[in-house]
Design goal:
Rossmann fold; 27% helix; single chain
Length: 357
């Protein structure tokens, strides 16, 4: 389980420490206070290959990863300061430092090229790389570094922005990283631009019935589930089969989460704007079912929301299993307050909204 995180110079988060994570962690607050950035920061340093995680999160946000957009990961675009993520787990603390470096070199082969005015057009190559430095408290672990390179061609003040070269080689599984990041995570964006079939397909042979029983908690008319021509169909009590997209975004989100947890390969789940698509009448059913699954498979969940009804439903349904972290901006610095069940309940009883308190 992740217990705490210290974040420095990541996007809107200049210096933020959050402690006291539990089984279900909920980040609230007004717009533009860094809720999604907190979720991303925890995800990056939670599993597998943080370089791959950084790239995947950019892809989820439909950001083209190149030598310009990579600066967006640094607070206020200040690449002179390293990005720090210090994550405390039950049995380890992992410190990840990401440093931005660049250099410009004259390319002699093209130095004698001339432009239309018969003037020299010296070409330069700008090399940019991110250095990932890893440290772990495990006794056998020795600190090491990995490099994420970029190359640019510069001619007459025009820059040709080049994407990452040999990306597949960079994000290949790494034995050292596997030793310090033994668990896996998944990130579900607010837009839910993922295919539920990708998560259902591995379960259709051996865990199909468990998926169906779980879906019945959300809609007891569901009797079966199958894939037909690359599309998920649900069989209802009327014996007809319906495409899953007819059931709405809230149901698809629930089904996606259920499949991820039942597959039992993920230990940390991150969901941005979890309330999107959920009707308020289904929130408690959603939360109870997901919490039961996460406890069965020992999965830790981190979510963001700006919905007061969802906050109230989470408190009523999950009680002591949920920790609420309210993010706010004070003196141009993002900060976080933690509310446990007891304090949150008192605030709600006094009509104090947690999302803006």
């Amino acid at each position: 389980m992740i217990k705490s995180i210290e974040i420095k110079n990541y996007k809107a988060l200049k210096d933020l420490t959050i402690k006291g994570f539990t089984s279900f962690n909920l980040f609230s607050g007004e717009n533009n206070v860094g809720k999604t950035s907190v979720l991303e920061a925890i995800c990056i340093n939670s599993f597998g290959n943080p370089i791959h995680n950084l790239i995947q999160l950019a892809n989820i946000r439909l950001t083209r990863i190149d030598s310009t957009s990579i600066q967006d990961f640094f607070s206020h675009l200040d690449t002179t300061q390293p990005l720090h993520l210090n994550t405390e787990f039950d049995n380890d603390t992992i410190n990840l430092k990401i440093t931005y470096n660049d250099s410009t070199n004259l390319v002699l082969d093209n130095f004698n090229a001339l432009n239309l005015n018969n003037e020299f057009m010296p070409n330069f190559e700008k090399q940019i790389h991110l250095k990932f430095a890893f440290q772990s408290k495990k006794e056998f672990f020795e600190p090491f570094e990995k490099i994420l390179p970029f190359n640019l061609s510069i001619q007459e003040n025009k820059i040709e922005n080049v994407l990452l070269p040999n990306l597949q080689n960079i994000i290949q599984p790494d034995l050292k990283l596997n030793q310090i990041y033994p668990n896996r995570s998944t990130f579900i964006p607010a837009s839910l631009n993922i295919n539920v079939l990708d998560f259902l397909r591995p379960l259709l042979r051996d865990k199909k019935e468990e998926v169906i029983e779980c879906l019945k908690k959300f809609d007891n008319n569901i009797m079966g589930i199958e894939e037909i021509g690359g599309v998920v169909f649900l069989k209802l009590k009327d014996k007809k089969k319906y495409r899953v997209n007819m059931f709405g975004l809230g149901f698809i989100k629930f089904m996606t989460l259920a499949c991820i947890i039942i597959n039992n390969k993920i230990k940390y789940i991150f969901v941005d704007e979890i309330e999107n698509g959920l009707h308020h009448k289904n929130m408690q059913v959603f939360l109870k079912a997901i919490m039961e699954l996460s406890q069965k498979y020992q999965v830790q969940i981190f979510v963001t929301t700006h919905n007061q009804e969802f906050l109230e439903s989470a408190l009523e349904t999950l009680q002591n299993e949920v920790s609420i972290f309210k993010l706010f901006n004070r003196d141009n610095q993002i900060r976080a307050n933690r509310y446990d069940y007891g304090l949150s309940k008192i605030m709600l009883e006094n009509n104090i909204e947690l999302r803006n308190s």
